Amino acid sequence: MAAAPPPPAAGGFVLFLHGSGGSGEEIGAEVAPYFAAPELASSVRLSFPTAPTAPIACYGCNLLCCFALWMLCKSCDAVITAWFGIAEVPITAKTVRDEKEVLKAVEYVHGLIDKEIASGTSPSDIFVCGLSQGGALAIASVLLYPKTLGGCVVFSGSVPLRKSFADKVSPEARKTPVLWFHGMADGLVLFEAGHAGCAFLEELGMTCEFKAYPTLGHSIIEEELQYFQQWILNRLGISGITETARPSSSSQHKDLQ
């Protein structure tokens, strides 16, 4: 006799991927408070995995980029957390990654999604999100996943795949809505990269809501996280949240992308 399917898991599932040089714990400290209200505790489950560490050759790092980045990369091969290799900085609309590494990371994310669905969560209640390199991995994972998910949210990211991958994006994946945040003053993942990424999604027939911030650099701020929170809750059909715990300050995150 076939085993009975698992009962549906309650509420939604948000998978959030950090940027290179970061960790799940660090980005979780920024994001989790927005879903910490008692009335959300059983409605939204969060996951913040940490990327493996690897020696990453850093290109173009100097004091003009940013001091923290330069300090991290002053050795030729910095050992940092990263989902895949870093081709260059800054990331532009024409930057090309090692697609084998990107696809390996996508397989890892797909495994996490598959595990969540196997536990009973509906694909329509699963959200894949990320910051910078994590955002790039999030959108690549959604594009190549064979089912329609609840949504994808990209903070200061880019599409890390060539347009030739358009043929591999299934009709179901194209129905997944995307929310994209990007600062126009971003010096590490240039605004043009984010804008081109969203335009590519629209060429695929996908819905991409793009929110630009004129003075924002490569950071994640409270205004973005508040909008992100509401976007997720709206898609889960959760309303009436009167109070949400929020961090005292926004992150000034800077990574290598």
From TrEMBL:
Domain of life of the organism encoding this protein = Eukaryota
Query: Sorted alphabetically, which Pfam families does this protein's record hold?
Result: Abhydrolase_2 (PF02230)
InterPro entries for the chain? AB_hydrolase_fold (IPR029058), LYPA1-2/EST-like (IPR050565), PLipase/COase/thioEstase (IPR003140)
Task: Please list the residue ranges annotated as the Phospholipase/carboxylesterase/thioesterase domain.
Answer: 80-232
By its UniProt entry, which SUPFAM superfamilies does this protein fall under? Answer: alpha/beta-Hydrolases (SSF53474)
Which N-terminal residues, if any, form the signal peptide?
Answer: none
Give the family, as the similarity comment puts it.
Belongs to the AB hydrolase superfamily. AB hydrolase 2 family.
Q: What is this protein called?
A: Phospholipase/carboxylesterase/thioesterase domain-containing protein
